[in-house]
Write a sequence for this structure.
């Protein structure tokens, strides 16, 4: 980030938001079955529960995988020289953290995990990976 003091907050900001997003996403494994039970009707059977649980576990696993790739790229300093990218990634993870927190605490519908994955996790990870593939100019 260079010697410009106004950018000194970006790396800790991104680290804290990414780590918080990753930890809360890992917490979804424990809360996942409760989220599914809350949104099921009494007519739904065990087959529907298993299908939904498999889908939730798939997206939680993908979410953790993408966040881990983003974490590895961040620690390797891929976007360190690009303050706007670092700020955008931190902001995406901040919103991902907030909405994942609301899923757990407020009992949002289990399908919200899918929206958070595609809106906040995938763009940040794809941006980091694309920067890792392109050399710094």
């Amino acid at each position: 980030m260079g010697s410009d003091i106004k950018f000194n907050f970006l790396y800790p900001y991104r680290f804290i938001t990414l780590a918080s997003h990753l930890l809360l996403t890992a917490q979804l494994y424990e809360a996942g079955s409760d989220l599914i039970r809350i949104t099921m009707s009494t007519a739904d059977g065990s087959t529907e529960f298993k299908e939904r649980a498999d889908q939730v576990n798939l997206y939680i696993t993908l979410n953790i995988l993408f966040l881990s790739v983003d974490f590895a790229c961040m620690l390797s300093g891929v976007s360190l020289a690009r303050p706007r990218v670092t700020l955008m990634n931190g902001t995406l993870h901040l919103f991902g953290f907030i909405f994942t927190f609301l899923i757990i605490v407020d009992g949002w519908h289990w399908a919200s995990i899918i929206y958070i994955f595609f809106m906040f996790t995938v763009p940040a990870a794809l941006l980091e990976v694309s920067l890792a593939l392109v050399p710094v100019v």
The helical segments are 10-39, 46-75, 83-106, 112-133. The chain has a mean pLDDT of 87. The CA atoms of residues 36 and 49 lie 7 Å apart. The first helix runs from residue 10 to 39.
